[in-house]
Amino acid sequence: MTKSAPSNLVKEKISTLLSDLSLPDSELLNDCIHSIIKMQQHNVEENDLKLLSTALEEFRDIFKLFQRYRDVRKITIFGSARCKPSHPNYILAEQTAKSLSKKGYMIITGAGPGIMEAGNKGALLNKSFGLNILLPFEQLANQYIEGSSKLISFKYFFTRKLAFIRESDGTVLFPGGFGTHDEGFELLTLIQTGRCAPRPFILINHPDSSYWQHWKTYVQNELLEKEYISKDDMSIFSICDSVDDVEKTISQFYHNYHSIRYTSQSTFLRLNHPLSETHLKTINQEFKHLITHDKFSFTPANTPVKEDPYFPDKPKLIFQFNRTDYSGLYPLIYYLNSLSIE
What we know:
The termini are far apart. A seven-stranded parallel β-sheet has the order 4-3-2-1-5-6-7, sandwiched between helices. The chain has helices at residues 5-20, 27-41, 46-66, 88-102, 115-122, 157-166, 178-192, 211-224, 243-253, 277-286, 329-338; strands at 74-78, 106-109, 128-133, 151-154, 170-173, 201-204, 237-240, 257-262, 267-271, 297-299, 316-319. Strand 6, helix 8 and strand 7 form a beta-alpha-beta unit. It folds into two domains: 72-253, 3-Layer(aba) Sandwich (Rossmann fold); 257-338. By secondary structure, the protein is α/β, with parallel strands linked by helices.
């Protein structure tokens, strides 16, 4: 018997099980179950299996909740849980959520008090989600999301944080403490390293506050000037102080840019509008540092692309991305969004 035979035998039995349960025998589903079985073969401890079981249940809840809303753009709102309803940032968060939901966006919050509560309160009816975290001192869901079918309670921060990012199309970060900065810096890291698609990342405080301006000064002086980050990393985030600024920043980000897909061969930047030959020439001149070889090319809408069959109605900018300058995609996106669209 070959070394791979036992593994193949397990996969065959999994395929039979899936068939008996009338479930699709997809290769990925087979691999997931196979991985769990292999864990037990290494005599993992019971606590390890408890962690795995709980995490899988939380992923299941995430997929179940958001699956029907995947075609709706969603904005995550983060900020301090200690912010009182009378605070200017609470009021601003409520107004921001209300305005964005009126524009068709759905709102995602951490379901707790403070800025999270303001986000759920401001969103139109049934237009917000709450991703609550179960803490030793029992953070309860706020009154504006409690009892909703769009509320999930998590044991683990890592599954909750993944949901915040994976299921949203933009992030609005209000002032807060360790948790707020943890969420903000993690998102910056994921964007910088290409583990998260480009998105509007907005830092906001009320007009009389200099909270994020002080933060930006620190980042410039201690991170950028000491070359711990690159100049393009500073283009990932925007600082706003009004609802209008937030709306404008998000709508402008998706003015021409739609989404992106990386494959082993190429990167496909999907657009809402076509590019002219002049614009394509400018891109090849100004952004050639982003590609490894060849040139940027453009494919009109409704042109079959084997490597990217999704969104066939979208024109696509195709290039051999260097897979290192992910922050550099932001200036490219800003250029594309600045083009005059007829």
